[in-house]
Amino acid sequence: MTTPVKQHLIDPEICIRCYTCEMTCPIGAIEHDDNNVVVNADVCNFCMDCIPVCPTGSIDEWRVVETPYTLEEQYEFDELPEQAEIEAAPAGGDEGEADPIAALLAEAHKGAGGKARAPLTAAKPAVNMYTLGKPAKMKVQGNYRLTDDPSHDVRHIILDPGALPFPVLEGQSVGIIPPGQDAEGKAHLPRLYSVSSPRDGERPGYHNISLTVKREDGGLASNYLCDLEQGSEVEVTGPFGSTFLMPNDPNARLLLICTGTGSAPMRAFTMQRQRGGATGGMTMFFGARTPESLPYFGPLKKIPEKILRQHLVFSRLPDADKEYVQDRIVSEQDEVAEMLGDDRTHIYICGLRGMEEGVELAMTSIAESIGQQWTALRDVMRDEGRYHVETY
Ligand code: NAP
User: Fold this and answer.
1) Mean of the pLDDT values across residues 243-260?
2) How far, in Å, is the centroid of ligand 1 from the Cα of 351?
3) Measured over all CA atoms, what is the biggest interatomic distance in the chain, rounded to whole angstroms?
4) Which residues are tagged catalytic?
5) Rounded-to-10 torsion of CA 297, 299, 304, 310
6) Cα radius of gyration rounded to whole Å, the chain
7) Per the database record, which ranges form the 4Fe-4S ferredoxin-type domain (predicted)?
8) Alpha-carbon distances, residue 59 vs 98, 148, 159, 376 (angstroms)
9) Distance, CA 49 to ligand 1 centroid (Å)?
10) Taking the CB of residue 140, how many other CB atoms lie within 10 A of it?
11) Confidence of residue 377 (pLDDT cuts 50, 70, 90)
C-alpha cells in the first residue's frame, strides 16, 4: 500500500479565475487551462505563499490521497472530489501515539485559514459557464463616467449578453478578455470585475450586467473597458464566485465596508434589496478620496436611510484630516457593536487589500466593548456564511 500524502487542490466552484495564486507561486506549481486553475502535486512544496493572496479562499483545499490527482484530472473537475476513506495507520508504537493519517486528515479538513461560505439563504449561483476557450460575446450597451474628478476616471459599463444565458447573482464576478496578445504572443488572461448590477439586470427583466471600472495608468483591461464604445463586442468569462453572495432572507442585516470600485457588489446588493422589499436594512462604510471620486455618489444620495444608512468617508478633502473607513467604524462603534451582537448581521468587505488590517483592528476593539473576542466571532460568522471578504 502507498503511504497517503496531503495534496493541495483548488475549489473550481469558488475560484474566480483571477490567477493571482499562479502569479504568486514562487516555484511555478500552479497553472491553468481554459477551464480550471490547478496545483501540480509533484511541484507544490506547501510554502503557503498562495493562501493569503486568494480573494475567495478557494485555494485553501486539501485532501489526503494515496495517489495524488493528476493535472489532467484536476482540469476536468467541475467540483472538488470528496475526501476518500483512507485506512488508519496500523496500530503500533507507544500507547497514545498519534495516528499520522488521522492527523493528516484533520489538518486537511481544517485548511490553512477560515473557509468562506455562502449565506445559508443565498440563491444557488451558476459558475464557470463561459471559459477562456469559450467566452460569451457581449455587446456594450452603455459606458458612462461616474466621477467628476478629472484624474479619477471611473466608468459604469453595461454589457448585454443578448440571447445567451448568463445568470449572475449579486457579488459574483466576470472575467474580461482584453483583445490582442501579450509579449510572448499568448492571448491575454481575463481580468476580473465584480458585477455591479442585480440578478435580473440594470432594469428588471433586462438581464444585462454592469461593471464598475477605474481607469488605471497603463492598465491593459481598464483602459480597454473605459474606452469601449456602445455597440462594440466584448469577450466575457464566468460568472465566478459562490460565497460572496447576499442572503435572500429579507430580515438579514448587511454591514457593507468598501473602498473605491470595491463598491461594485454593494451597488448590486442595494438594488436587489430595494427591488425585493427587504426590511432588515443595510449600513455602509464607503471610503473614497473625495466626493468627486466616489462612484455612484449622486444615486447614493437618493437612497432612503431606512434601506441604506451611509457613512461616506473621504481621505483627501482639502480642509479635513485623512479619514479611512476603519476610522469611521471606530467613531460609529455603537452602531457597529449593536450589529455585531445581532446574529442576523452579515458583513461584506470589498476593495483595497490594505484596508483589511485596519478593519480587523477596528472590529477587535468594538467586539471587546461588547465582551466578545473578534477572531472567535468572525470565525463563527464565516462558518455561518455571514462574513465575506474580497480584496485585491
Ligand atoms: P482608491 O480610489 O485608490 O481608494 C479608495 C479609498 O481607500 C481612498 O480614500 C484611499 O485613501 C483609501 N485607502 C487607501 N489605503 C487604505 C487603507 N489601508 N485602509 C483604508 N482605506 C484606504 O480605490 P480604487 O482605486 O477604486 O481601488 C479599489 C480596489 O478595489 C482596487 O484594488 C480594486 O482591485 C478592488 N476591487 C475592485 C472591484 C471591482 O469590481 N471594480 C471589486 C473588488 C475589489 P488614500 O487617499 O490614502 O488613497
Assistant:
1) 97
2) 5
3) 74
4) 193-194, 350, 390, 392
5) -20
6) 22
7) 6-35, 37-64
8) 28, 39, 29, 22
9) 23
10) 17
11) very high
Q: Mean pLDDT for the chain?
A: 93
Does residue 287 register a pLDDT over 90?
A: yes
What is the separation, in whole angstroms, between the first and last Cα of the chain?
44
Q: Is 210 annotated as a binding residue?
A: no
Per-residue HEC secondary structure of 133-162 comes to: CCCEEEEEEEEEECCCCCCCCEEEEEEECC
Which residue in 235, 306, 317 sits closest to 274, CA to CA? 306
Contact 87, 65 (CB under 8 A): no
Which residue, judged by its Cα, is nearest atom 47 of ligand 1? 315
Identity of residue 299: P
d(C-alpha 212, C-alpha 299), whole Å: 14
Whether 357 is in the pocket of ligand 1, judged by its Cβ within 6 Å, is no
Distance CA 119, CA 381 (A): 10
- Give the domains, in start order, of the chain with CATH numbers: 1-115 (3.30.70.20), 136-240 (2.40.30.10), 253-391 (3.40.50.80)
In this prediction, residue 298 carries a pLDDT of 83
CA-nearest residue, atom 43 of ligand 1: 262
Give the CB-side neighbour count of residue 387, counting CA atoms within 13 A.
22
